[in-house]
Amino acid sequence: MRHPILAMALAAGLVGACSSSTSPPSAPLATASPAASEAGTPLADRLEAEVAVEGSPDWPLVAFDSVWVVAPDLPLVDDTATPNLIRIDPATNEVAATIVLPDRLCQGFTASPDAIWACSADALVRIDPATNEITDTVAFEGTGAISSYRPAVGGGSLWFLGSGGFVANTLVALDEGAKSTRTFEQSGTIFGMAYAFDALWFTMPGEGSVARFDPVTEETEVVTTDLPNPTAIAAGPDSLWVSLHGANDDQASAGDTQLVRIDPLTGDISAEFEIGGSPQSGVEAWAGDVAVHVRSTTPWLVTIDPTTNEIVDTITGGEPVHGPLTAGFDSVWTVNLEHDNVFRLAP
Fold this sequence. Notes:
By secondary structure, the chain is mainly beta.
């Protein structure tokens, strides 16, 4: 199970990719709602493969010609519980490697240009994708890693979340070449991070805001406020996409705006989306050049056209359990939290 301090990580997880594209639509504000669930495509009709991975696989990531997931919920072995990093071969849809990580406190991992980096209780570990072995360990200085969310990469650093008191309020910048870290404490608890547009962007659910951290000046600027519990954030080609987990008892309800599109130049919201789902649902999205794929509960997955801000596709019929997702190898890859499988879907 996830670290109890980060239970809200069950709510949302986004990951994005940046490249050139059209600018976000201007005023008037666009809104969108999913089509009725009856009109969606059944999950079985889009399922290309279902990969069995023991330990509740989470946070799918595409890197080094593979799909990677962390499996945090493994049975105890010799009274020691450790998560595994799992590598999946998309050519065979089978597990190609299993890397045992040092401890289970932190589940965040990401890819640099030549390695996979994962966090542990008080250090970062480097995995060589050529050998699937841990080759280096970099200790955190003055903080512990507690993030079970996706780290970010950009500006010459890998960005993790740290804490001095079990509150994720500290940005941790890893210099991969120097094998050293720097820390930047922020004013509130951070949930999601994304690097794009020459800055690190992050959400602060308790403050209802999205902030921008400049890695050159090391200054933080709040750019968007009055959001109902913003959690995960993704960077698309020209916009930020932020999940809203709801203002009522920290739960996004059907009928609420559950996803917003933000202009990074102004911080203004250019589109709002009702994804659907139950009162316990959050949204998980992957923002790309031509589509934004969003996981929820009912519908199970929706696809947004970023050029029109229209929901153009829905997938229904999956078990109403949300989970993060990514895209690669002409497929969408996602999970159902707390279940032992990875789904490969036709987009």
